[in-house]
Amino acid sequence: MKHVSVSLTPEAYEVYQHLLSFAQDSKQDNAILNAFLQKIELIKKTPHYGQAIAKNLIPIEYKRDYDLKNLFRVELPHFWRMLYTLMPSDKGIEIAIVVLDIIDHKRYDKLFGYKK
User: Fold this and answer.
1) Which pLDDT tens digit goes with each residue over 9-44?
2) Which of 41, 50, 53, 59 has its CA 20 to 30 A from that of 112?
3) Cα separation of 29 and 51, whole Å?
4) What is the layout of strands, in order, in the sheet containing 51-52?
């Protein structure tokens, strides 16, 4: 069985830190944080857990900044989304999961070019 590592981009880490900071006082932030942590555990067991995004729909900035070959979406509470990719590891026997973003519905729609 391959080892699975999970890392967060600086953008995703910033949102994660925000959720950690406010989860104790905000039911919404707490729900999103708990779901995020649960989904990470599911993805570790089944890396293709999320809904695959078609290659032609991957946002240009992700392709440019991360040279993505794949992108997966996982739904979180309150219409939030987690976006992640699977990358080859330097070690060869490891699956590297990179969480690109944890975003609300409005930002998700804008990122993917959806209109109201």
Assistant:
1) 999 999 999 999 999 999 999 999 999 999 999 999
2) 41
3) 23
4) 3-8, 94-103, 80-88, 72-76, 51-52
